[in-house]
Amino acid sequence: MSNYFRSQNKSTRPDLLCGHPADYLVEDKHFIMLVCFIVALGGFLKTCLKNSEVIVLTILSLSGFVIGRMAYNSVEVHEIVYPLIRTPSFSLFSYFSPVIIFMAALDVDFYILKNVFWQVLLTGLISFSAACIIIGYVAIKFNKESWDLQSCLFFSITLGITDPLHSVNSLKTIGISKIYTDLIRGESVIICSIASIFFGIFRSNIIHLSIFRVSHAAIGIILDIFGSIIFGYWCARIIQFILADLFINMLTDIVLCFSMVYMTFYIVEYLGMSGILALATVGLNLDSLTFKPRIEFVITRFLRMFSSVYEHLIYAFSGIVIGCGETSHYEFHTIIFILILFVTVNLVRLLTILLVSPILMRSNYEYNWRWGVVMTWSGIKGVFSLLFAPDIYNLTEQKVEVPEMFILYVQVISLLTMGINSYMMTQSAKKLGLCVLSLPRQMALQNATQHIQEIIQNTITLFKTEKILTNVNWTLVEDKTTIEYIPFSHVSPKEMKKESPTDEVLIEEARLHVAIIQMSSFETQHNDGILEIEAAQTLIGAAKSYCPIQGKFMSIYDVSSYVRARSWLIKFKNVLTFLDYRKEKISFIPPESNIFLTSVFHVVFSEEFEYAGHIIRLIYIYPLIIQLWPMARELNGSALIAINYYFIFLYILESTLKIIIPILLSIVDVQIEKRLSLKYSITKGYVKSQEDAKLLIKQISGRESIYKKLYEILETNKQDAVKELGLIERKCRDVVIALKTKQAIRNVIAEALKNLTFLWSRGIIDKHEGIEMNKVLLKKLKALNKFPMAIPPPTPDKYLHNIIWLEGKDVLIEFFKERAKLAYFDYGDIICKKGEMPQGIYLIISGMAILHSLSPTFGIGSSQRPDTESRAMFKEFCTSGDIIGELSCLLKREIEYTVICETILQACFISLEDLYEGFDVFWPSLEYKIWLKLALKTAYQYFESSLIDEDLRFQKCVMYNHAYVETLSSYNEMTIDNMTMKFVIIVYGSVIDTKTEEPYFAPCIIPKTCEQVQGTSDLSKLLIIQASEPDRSNSKTNVMASVDPVFKQPGEYITGRQKMS
Question: Transmembrane segments in this chain: where (predicted)?
């Protein structure tokens, strides 16, 4: 495009689209008023006609035509519109197209598009080719205005462009799968990019069209495509880097994003490439994770606003241009030709879908002939066809008499397809049943509606306790807030009750819900600072890649196969290490499949080869002697020069390698650490997503068999991921320690920011002080970008600080430091065995072990355990930081599990005698702290969804007694005060309700109907969570107990074993 820019600068002639040149002094001051009028009119019409965009655009087009006719007959009006009709067509294209194409590409899900990229590319190429041939033939055959071949070709390309915005807008409002909207929109973006490249080549060669050659076009297209994609990719990386700055506010984000769009477009066009393709690449490489939380919504709304305004201006300007031309050429044949073009455009779309349907059917199990019918009507034309229409006249060698006819045909076809095709597309989707939700999904929606109604009812119950609201008409409130389930399809509630979906159907629907929960978890973890953007994008990409595979639950091994660690880096490092330190033996094995490389390896790295090198160095002494002998030097001058050059080259090469190899080694080490850190973050984020999904599976499906199967799948996948974490930590302990340390710092600063926001909102800190403190904390967060990738592990005695019931107590730490010992275990060693008495507790320092056991008994004897409950086998992986044997040591009872080393393991061992000596010395605080730690762990493990709003950090519970542990022996009683006790959870043993004699077995939340309990086990432990506001705790806790879907009806209770079974 650079040639075009220069040619425009040199040209002095007015580039009139139509009409006559001005024979008066032209002033541009009134044109701004026209633009403002069009924007205001478009906004008013859009407000009045909210769901009729085509009517708004039609009115704007007609209004523009009227203004154009007035300009044709009036000098005053002509003076207003003259700046428009003399504006170069490429200038209009450059003003409006960047934001629109960027907005369209940004709305496409890159991960979905990547899975069907080749199918989308093939669809776009077939559609573009079919449009060029068929529409071009129709234009030559049925048009009476004698257009030449070049004009017909440009016209067919213009009409072949599918609008990337309107082609899917109608489908998005009726709940069509995003896979198909992205497929249509991706195809539209590809066609727009191809058309822009095609027009760009002709535009840049506008002065030398006579020497245009096919080879030149091919080279230009290749350079345009690859150059634009590469430039767009790096621009996306720059935008991501800029938006990642913590100190940028929302306004700066919007300005930067908007300006970078135009800057990218203009730079790429000036360099002679395609700005449209570059911006499409930028938009596809940006996603919701690129923007800060809540800013994406604002930026998207801002871009949509400008896209809508630009669209209104384009249609109004096109109407003005048409109105400024001659109307004597409008005949009855013009209408006939428009109808022929409309039919042809849809036939081209039908032919395209017929050709690509076999490929789409093989690549996507959901695609069928119904989707083909809907996609046939998706060939909607829009703003890009109008922006390219003026170039048909400008770029052709043979100028036509009425250039505005190109714009007229394109604009009318655009409005027809926007109205008729959009209507037919939505009606086809509805009539063919593509909008009907599956029966399992309708059941899930019905359950969600009931759940929302329960929340509303509980909120009303809570408000009834407010003294200021005692005289409210609560009957009217309940009547006005009642929500009834409204079916989203043609299936009635009676038919839903008659039909009973199979487990396979319900599992498939639940699988899709689990995938959505996982992706939401990944995004939440990124927003909370737990996951880096690359790890979150990788996990979301993997989830979207495996989501279309029927029956496939994504495991950690699937994620690993989706993004393979760069194993070649490790092999490359081994080679460099071997070259750098020849004397050290390293584990480098050449590929056995390649006989040549194996032979070369054995020759080069043999002792004989090394001796040969020393011999060659000694041989060089002979040429040196010859050099010193004058007669011999004269006779062998050229040979000596060649030998000198040869040996000097060898010495320089050897010296260079000695310098470069250590540098390459350090670079490779850094890259390996980055990849391992990323892999650990990905695995950690996956584990968290499995835990989040497990909390919500009760809401996904109410059928018990489905719930059990889902829980089993999620637990198995979680344990596999935990095992991977242990293996990664064994391979790169330094990297994992650095990553954990960095995350701990991030969590502490994030908590400080939350507290600062609270103090700021309550007026304790004024605005200026809050801003300054916020800057200090953000600087510390930003400094984490330079945090080292690896940190050496602390000494074993430092690990005692990681035991939570020793944390912050130097006296306790010093006491156990003198008594603790290091224990080493090899692969396969048994740390402790089921049925044996405990020897002490083990704090794992490094390595991984697997724990095999039946489900915990929680101190309940077989005679007390209900007959309906069975103990299932389970396994759990223990890694660095985990403690083994706490409960058994506290109770002095046989161990209920077997722990076997999966890797070489190092642990800090505290014997049972030393532990009880500590109990005696620090009585009773030490033993109580261990029980509190175990009680909090059990409560979170089984009832996290109920306790999600509670701050049960161990240190806070110790300092402020927010949660504490009560002990009950057999026949001992405890009164439950619902005013001060928010939750009462039995974490060990069993109790009964003294009033109803209903038994409760650990782990279990005691219901609010229970006023007093009595211990029925030798030892029972209850975790009491106190209410922060005693006067409202009773109503609050009742609300929470009934809001959570896991809780039963009043009078019933939930147990942890019910959740596990």
Answer: 31-49, 54-72, 92-113, 120-140, 183-202, 214-234, 246-265, 271-290, 302-323, 335-360, 372-393, 405-424, 644-668
Q: How far is CA 930 from the centre of its chain?
A: 40
Quickly state the pLDDT bin for 756 (edges 50, 70, 90).
Answer: confident
Cα(164)–Cα(554) distance, integer angstroms: 32
- Structural domain 30-432, CATH architecture: Up-down Bundle (1.20)
Q: Among the listed ranges 378-387, 581-590, 1005-1014, which one has the minimum average pLDDT value?
A: 581-590
| CA distance to 69, 141, 159, per residue, from 401 (Å) | 19, 18, 20
Nearest residue to 529 (alpha-carbon basis) of 242, 690, 739, 300: 739
Task: Return mean pLDDT, the chain.
Answer: 78
Tell whether the torsion through CA atoms of 728, 732, 733 and 736 is positive or negative: negative
Sign of CA dihedral 538, 539, 540, 546: positive
Beta strands in 847-881 (DSSP E): 849-854, 873-878
Phi, psi of 721 (to 5 degrees): -70, -40
Q: Note whether 466 and 1029 are within 8 A (CB).
A: no
Q: In terms of DSSP H, where are the helices of 621-703?
A: 621-628, 630-635, 637-700
Distances (CA, A) of 615 to 187, 330, 618, 624, 719: 66, 95, 5, 15, 59
| Selection from 381, 304, 319, 321 nearest residue 348 by Cα | 381
- Note the pLDDT tens digit of each residue in 295-350: 778 888 888 899 999 999 999 999 998 988 877 778 888 899 999 999 999 999 99
The burial of 992, by beta-carbon neighbours within 10 Å (0-12 exposed, 13-18 middle, 19 or more buried), is given as middle
- Edge-first strand order for the sheet with 883-884 is 821-825, 905-911, 840-846, 883-884
CA pair distance 227, 270, nearest whole angstrom: 12
Any idea what DSSP says for residue 732?
-
Spell out the SS3 assignment of 170-213: HHHCCCCCHHHHHHHHHHHHHHHHHHHHHHHHHHHCHHHHHHCC
Q: 1017 — phi, psi (to 5°)? A: -110, 165
HEC-encoded secondary structure of 385-442 = HHHHHHHHHHHCCCCCCCCHHHHHHHHHHHHHHHHHHHHHHHHHHHHCCCCCCCHHHH
| Alpha-carbon dihedral sign for residues 846, 848, 852, 858 | positive
Contact partners, residue 882, CB within 8 Å, separation at least 6: 843, 844
Closest CA to 282 of 238, 224, 252, 222: 238
Determine how many CB atoms are found less than 10 A away from the CB of residue 64: 28
User: What DSSP character marks residue 736?
Assistant: H
As beta bridge partners, residue 844 has 907
> Rounded to an integer, what distance in angstroms lies between the CA atom of residue 631 and that of residue 564?
65
CATH superfamily, domain 796-860+870-922, is: Jelly Rolls (2.60.120.10)
CB 999 within 8 A of CB 964: no
What is the H or E stretch that residue 341 is in?
A: helix 332-363
SS (H, E, C) 58-114: HHHHHHHHHHHHHHHHCHHHHHHHHHHHCCCHHHHHHHHHHHHHHHHHHCCCHHHHH
Lay out the sheet containing 1012-1015: strands in order across.
Answer: 973-975, 1012-1015, 990-993, 999-1001
Residue 671 exposure: Cα atoms within 13 Å on the Cβ side: 15
DSSP tag of 795: P
Sheet holding 1054-1055, edge to edge: 963-969, 1019-1026, 981-988, 1004-1005, 1054-1055
Instruction: Name the β-bridge partners of 830.
Output: 900
pTM of the model: 0.70
Question: To which H or E segment does residue 544 belong?
Answer: helix 533-546
Kind plus residue range of the DSSP H or E element containing 823: strand 821-825
DSSP 162: P
Q: Which CATH superfamily is domain 942-1026 in?
A: Jelly Rolls (2.60.120.10)
Looking at residue 24, its amino acid is Y
